[in-house]
Amino acid sequence: MNLRIPLAGLALALALTGAKAGETIRVAIGTQDTTINCATGGLLIRELKLLEKYLPRDGKYKDVTYDVQWKNFTSGAPLTNEMVADKLDFGAMADFPGSLNGAAHLKAGRKSIFLSVLSGSTIGSGNGIVVPTESKVQSLAELRGKQISVPFASTSHGMLLRALKAQGIDPEKDVNIVTQAPEVAGSALQANKIDAHADFVPFADLFPYRGFARKILDGAQANAPTFHGTLVSAEYAKQYPEIVVAYLRAAIEANRLIAAEPEKYSELIAKVTGIEAEVNYLFHGPLGLQTRDFTWKPEYRQALATSIDTLRILKRHDSDLTADTFIDDKYIRAAFQQSGLDYDAQLKHYDKLPLKANDHLTGKPITEFKRVAQVWVEGEPLVRHYASPENAFADARKVTAAGRKIRVIFAHDDNLGIKLLANQAWFAADAKGQLHAFLLKDAATAWASANKGKVVDYAAARDTTVRVASAR
Description:
Layout: H1 8-16, E1 24-31, H2 43-47, H3 50-54, E2 65-72, H4 76-84, E3 90-94, H5 95-107, E4 112-121, E5 128-132, E6 147-150, H6 155-166, E7 176-179, H7 182-190, E8 196-199, H8 203-209, E9 213-218, H9 219-222, E10 226-233, H10 234-239, H11 241-260, H12 262-273, H13 277-284, E11 291-292, H14 298-313, H15 323-326, H16 330-338, H17 343-347, E12 373-377, E13 384-386, H18 389-401, E14 406-412, E15 419-421, E16 426-429, E17 435-438, H19 441-450, E18 454-456, H20 458-462
Helix pairs in contact: 4-5, 5-14, 11-12, 11-16, 12-13
C-alpha cells in the first residue's frame, strides 16, 4: 500500500514492519460511549462501520483478515488496565486518565502514544461542578467546609483542584473531597447525600438537564484547557502504522458526518448510550459547549503536561513521562493528508462548529452570535435557531400555545460564550427587554448593575414579551 506520506518517521516504520500474508490482525478498540465527546473516536465509528471502510486491503494487507473488537468502558482506568495487559490496541480518554495510561505503560516496560485530540475546550468548558437542585449554594466559594465528590484522577478532578485554589480554598483542609463515580454521584445528588459533585463530559450538564442538579461552575471559569483524545499501543503502531492511520481517517469521517447532521447523530448517540439527544446536541451542535478538534494545539499539549505534573504531585505516578515524549502527531498528520485536509491550517483554527442559519422567527440571517438561542421542538428533526433569547422564547410560546411540546431551549453565556441549558440560566434584561444569558446569578447581577438592567430567572425571561420585527 503506497501511503504517499512525506513523513520520514512513518515512512521508515512502513519499510521495516507490516502485515504478513494470511495473517489475522486484531484491531481492539476501547471506547467510553457515555463520555460523549469521545463519539468520533469510538461510538460513531463502530455504529456506522467506518473503520471497515478505511482499513488497508492491498499491498502487504491484501490477504489479511481483520478481527475488529470493541469494548465499552465507563472510565479510563479499566480501559488502561486492558491496554497495559495487551487486550486492547486503541483507547479513548481524557488528559488526566490518559496521563495515567502513559505512566502505566512505562511502569510495565511498554509505551503508549497519545495520537490525537478528539474533542475539547481550550478554555476548559465541559468539566463542571453541580449541587443538588434545592441547594442554597450559588458559587464555589460557598462550598468551603462542605463535602465535594469527584471521580479521582479524572480531568474533572484536576479542574476541581485548580478552581478551589483559585478561590483561596485549600483542597486538603477547607473542603472534604471524596471519590465518586458519575453513576453513583447521580443518586447521591438526588438524595442530598453530597453537597456538590465535580465531573467531566457530559455529567455536569446531564444531571442539570435531568432536573436533579444545578451547575455552579463551568470549567471555562477556571480557564483550564481540557480534552479527550485517542491513544494506541506504541508496539502496535510500529507494527501496523497503516491501520493507525486508517482508524484516524475513520474518526475524521465521523467528525464530518456529525458536523453535517448534528441532530441526526445526537439521536444515534442517545439510542446507544441513553444520554439524551438534547445533551448530545449541547456539545456536538453548532457553537457547542466543546469543540471537536483533532489537532495538537499548544493549549492541549499544555493541558497534558499539567495533568502529568498534577498526578505526579498527587503521587498517582512517579514515571518520567512528559507530554513531548507521549504525543506523536505523525499519524494524525498522515490521516489529514490522506483525507485531503490541511493539518497546519486546522492547528491555527480555534472557531467552534459554525452556525449558518436564519432566525426562525424573523427570517433574517443570523450574523451576531453572542445572544444566539435555539429551540428543539418535539417531532421536528432539526433545531430552530434565533438571533436572541427573546426571539426564541416568543417562538416557543407560539409552539406551546399550539399544543406542541418543547424538547429543550439553549442560550449562550454572555461572558463565557458557552452554550447553556436555558432553564438552568440566569438572565439580565436591559431597558428594551433584550435578554442576556448567564450561567451564574452573580454574573447576571453584575451585568444588570453595569447596564441599568434587571435580573430575571428563566421563568420570567421565558414570559418576557418583546416586539419582534418580522421579515416575513
